[in-house]
Amino acid sequence: MNSSLQLSADGRLRHLLTVEGLSRGLITQILDEATLYTGGGRKLPLLHGKTVVNLFFEPSTRTRTTFELAAKRLSADVLNIQVAASSTTKGETLLDTLKTLEAMQVDMFVIRHEASGAAHFFAQHAAPGVAILNAGDGRHAHPTQALLDMYTIRQHKPDFTALTVAIVGDVMHSRVARSDIHALRILGAKEIRVVAPRTLIPSHIEAMGVTVFNELDAGLQGADVIILLRLQKERMVGAFLPSTGEFHRDFGLTRARLAKLSPDVLVMHPGPINRGVEIEGEVAYGERSVILEQVEHGIAVRMAVMGLILGSEELQHENRRQRAPMNHAPR
Ligand code: CP
Question: Cβ atoms within 10 A of the Cβ of 120, count?
Fold first, then answer.
């Protein structure tokens, strides 16, 4: 897939389709912009008069709602299309859906689809000036998840070059894993590990610059950050595992396993979690977990991306000028 589609000739973000191909400078700019919005605060006029459509062909709790909140906090009008009640169920194609909604003067589409490449397809066919944000396409990419993951890591451990990050679980089916690996590499992480049974490791993943571990305790040894992945049963065709019980025994993060690791290791998970499968419930909400911080940061990071793409230069400048008051806004 052509990642240059998302950048204008002068290197600015036009769409956000994948982390691949973004520069360290641009990712850092997005994370820095997100600090403007952390902690809630008053509504900002950055996207006043703009219309954002959420078009989710797969279920979502976090991504859809935080995109909606982000757009509303920037004063955009937001349409949430109920795909199950839309004309796609009568056979309308993705292209005709795009063109129909574009005719309503939409400025930005946030799209999630089960097909890898769906967001690229939208970006290729979108009218000039219409932005596409990928909210997850098949196994391919989930760029805003990776950005909010990097934001969350940076809040606790600012020097990526000192970090060993273990990505654990269903790497095979995970768009989050792919996007996180790209982001961590771009930001210069010291070591990126993928830890999973052989059946859940994609072939040739070492080419992405990761080290593969097929045993959990070895993969977690010395890690600064653990990113657990959901076992994606809905994307599995055939038997990848003997049972979820065996997966939990061999690859689940439990209190006992966590107790053997550094006391300041971060435990992350994009959600939704399978309690008792990839993670014990007590660990998911334990003191090393930043899972709910990840959710909260999703709003700020998505505001940053939307603002950079759609906000006028003048309003962006004014927004940055007011940065200090925003950071100290009461919750
Ligand atoms: N992390 C994530 O994409 O969660 P949702 O499926 O709830 O949006």
Answer: 22
